[in-house]
Amino acid sequence: MQLLRTYLPDFISLIFPQLCAACDAGLVAGEDIICTDCRYNLPFTNFHQLPDNIVAQQFWGKLNIEAAYALYYFNKGGKVQNLVHHLKYSSMPRIGNVLGEIAGAQLKQNGTFATVDYVIPVPLHKKRLKERGYNQSAHFAEGIASVLDCNCEIDNLIRKVATKTQTHKSRFARFENMKDVFEVASPQKLVGKHILLVDDIITTGSTLEACGMELLKVPGLRLSIATIAYAE
């Protein structure tokens, strides 16, 4: 029986190999979701070391934020795109948790992020949530919160309106499309707190901006932002 327990996982992996969600290489014992090579060689931004990074600059003059961050650079057709695609469309929510843990380890090195009280994901509309079965950003938020040792508030920020795709819209059109879309369900819980708002990818930042504007209506709230990837 002990031999069966020892070798059964290896036998199953021969028939149904687990593949790296970034490069599709076979995972070996001890690897989880992402192979060792990708864990160390994906295009990290190191924005946690750069206070005036490109993501932070996107919100200058728009949102009063403490800090902003993205874990990876996003390149079309690259490994990070594979990760995000599998996270959103291949029923692999655990990718979000793993990436959140990686991001959390970096953010923990930055004193600003170390003071976060709550991690809040950009919400999906209930119709989209039902279709997908999970919010990919919520899993990223849970991973970060587990490392920063803070709370994750999944249901406090609500998307009231199901918006259409933003892909082909200009930045102004994207922002207009996001007006009055979000609502804070329990603002009293966030008074005076440092909130880390997270999403999967940042391009123009219009969705994060709309969420941030709603959150900053809460008295004394301090806001920071983190995403899985930054699309140049």
What does this structure look like?
The chain has helices at 2-15, 36-41, 54-58, 79-89, 94-107, 126-132, 136-148, 171-177, 206-215; strands spanning 65-74, 118-121, 151-152, 157-159, 182-184, 194-202, 222-231. It is α/β, with parallel strands linked by helices and 232 residues long. It has a five-stranded parallel beta sheet with strand order 1-7-6-2-3, with helices on both faces. Strands 4-5 form a two-stranded antiparallel sheet. Strand 6 (194-202), helix 9 (206-215) and strand 7 (222-231) form a beta-alpha-beta unit. Helix 5 runs parallel beside helix 7 (136-148) and helix 8 crosses helix 9 (206-215).
List keywords for this structure.
232 residues; Rossmann fold; two-stranded antiparallel ribbon; 9 helices; 18% strand
Shape estimate: globular
Taking all residues together, what is the mean pLDDT?
91
**Helix-strand topology string:** HHHEHHEHHEEHEEHE
What is the radius of gyration?
A: 18 Å
Query: How can the largest sheet be summarized?
Result: 5 strands, parallel
Q: Structural class per helix/strand content? A: alpha/beta
Helix content: 25-40%
Level-1 CATH class name = Alpha Beta
Number of helical runs? Answer: 9
Number of strands: 7
Low-confidence stretches: none
Into which percentage range does the β-strand content fall? 15-25%
Strand order of the largest sheet: 1-7-6-2-3
Distance between the termini: 53 Å
The CATH topology label is Rossmann fold
Q: How many domain regions?
A: 1
Please give the CATH architecture.
3-Layer(aba) Sandwich
